[in-house]
Amino acid sequence: MKFVSHPNIVKLKEVIDDTESHKVYVIMEYCVNGPVHIHGDPPLPMEKVRRYGNNILAGLQHLHAQYLFHWDIKPANCLVDAEDVAKIADFGACGHSSRGRSFGGTPAYSCPEQFAGAHVTGDVADSWAFAMTLYQMSHGTLAYSVTCIGNLRDSLLDPTPLPIRKDLEPELHDLLSQMLDKDVSKRLMLNEAVQHPYFAESLGQPPTSESPNELCGASIEDLYARAQEAVLRGKRVGQYFHGVPSIRRMRQMMVRDIATCEAEDMDDTLVDGFELTSMESNPRFVANPADEEEVREIVNSFLQDSTREMVRIEDIFMPSMHPFIADTAASLVKLCLTNNRLFTMEGVDFSKFQHLRTLYVTKNALKFFPVEVIAAPQLTYLDLSYNSIVDVPTALSEARMLRTLCLNHNQIRHVGGDENGMSVFSGPSMQKVLLSANPLAHLPAEIVTCPAVELTVDDAPSLLEEWYTMVNCTTYVNIRWNDIYPCRVYPEVPLFVASKSVKLYNLTMLEALDVRNVVLLQFKSWIPVGEVEAGDMEMHLQALQRGVAKSVANDGNSISQMRSTRRTVVCNGEMFPVPQIFSKSVTRFLHSYFVMDEEPADQASVYNALRNYLTTRLSRKESVVVFVDERKASQMTRDTIVAVLCEVLTEAMGSEVTLGCCLNDVVDAIRGIYV
């Protein structure tokens, strides 16, 4: 919290750790006038309710923009200074995560979902508590009894709306009724309350929704200094940035898409004898170019039915841009092209799209960056994720209005600079560039020339090393690390630990670490248990996929429908997607797999088998990565893995590491499981 600075947040001056008395002293900014309201006191004047509410809302907007959530907003935690400005205080429950909690904060200001036992996110909890704070300031008390937790629970779970004074200002009455709606799907949240007329008519402008990039300011240098120190201690950079939760949310979306997205290598199929592509299974998908007229009719119907401000074309075979898309140029604001096998954007003059602001070209077959779209004069958001783009052109800096560029899941290995020594991301409006899931060999060239741009990349060891050297020699660079790469417990032992979903890992990451052996859980019944050579795993999957292809063919389906079965297997009559960790390119790169049974008959036999496997592979100087997905593994399985890792690593390190120290290092590497 020392790095959070805002006029509506109480400043943390200093934290003193008295090791002798085992006490921690927290020195905060002094707010002489105390809480904004005390429960039971008369209601505040309406002018003060509005002003204090505006102050608190501005402070919450700032916290949320930095991915921080208070979790205990109430009048007692909103203090008034000598200038009669309300400031948020008491961050004991605050956290840099929006991950759901079943309960937290003060019960009287907790939302109905928390009393129902549901897991709610920080923004939902803060939004309800803020509305209850407004309610108390304007009513003098809360709407229900707070003397009995049972009565409080019954009041909040009763669908009857909370009573609101009819003599309130109409705007405040409307705001409270919307923000205190007991149906969370209909409830007005903080980001929407900012634009409500109640705050729009306040003394100043309504609180503005700020982005983390706009808020970091000078404090980002302090954060980077702390991160550098952490790297020297062997810690992970991701633990020192508030943006990590948003990366995790993005990663969850990646997991949902990974089963059907474009593979890294176009021939990455385990089935011999069939020409399979990356077409998704969808009844509207037209895979035969001879049906182009039918496609034209379908797309034209999309255009006719749309408002002409947004056009969305999904799962329609369209390898190139059809001229009829240009018919929407006069009014189009948003264009979404998804899963069309589109390999070029040529044929349409984007300079005529005078109002186009948002463009998605995702899950397509682009191999080159579509420079044509840069001509759209008002383009601010460009998403080219899930293509096969290999390079970023210098012409990108000519995009005058482009703010956000998403290039996740492409084949970009190098990003250069222009002839003037400037980064290709140095456009005048550029704010955010996302490059996760690309085989980057180096950080983008000349990235120091655009310090205002927030760059998101995976935490590959080579990139972290470059970054550390860079920030020690130059001004800071604004990088958000996607902490996805496995962690090496000790530099002397080629043993890595990965605590994210195995579905996120691909050949690029394994090649970067030169990992040839993997340990993972049997998360699906079709995966064989025990030690399996990579070649045998490939043959096993080929046999399962042949069954899929034969089943489709026997049903009389076309080759286009066979394509939709790409990277799926059949087991016990059910179809399952095949994660990239089992793709043909990966099985041919790896030496072996070790698959752990989640419910073994004899836990000791699993322990011994895993220990022998790791010991044998390490004795051959082969690297191993152990996947421990905290959402999949049981407590017993995780404890078994940790115990084996400690035994193997202690033996490998000899007298240099004690068992206790090794346990701490292993637990630190398996982030998020035990903490």
UniProtKB/TrEMBL annotation:
One of its GO terms (cellular component) is cytoplasm. The keyword NADP does not apply. Transmembrane segments: none annotated. The keyword Transport does not apply. It holds the Pfam family LRR_8. GO terms for molecular function: ATP binding; protein serine/threonine kinase activity. GO terms for biological process: intracellular signal transduction. SMART domains: S_TKc. Keywords: ATP-binding, Leucine-rich repeat, Nucleotide-binding, Repeat. InterPro entries: Kinase-like_dom_sf (IPR011009), Leu-rich_rpt (IPR001611), LRR_dom_sf (IPR032675), Prot_kinase_dom (IPR000719), Ser/Thr_kinase_AS (IPR008271). Residues 1-199 form the Protein kinase domain. Signal peptide: none annotated. This is Uncharacterized protein TCIL3000_8_6320. It comes from Trypanosoma congolense (strain IL3000).
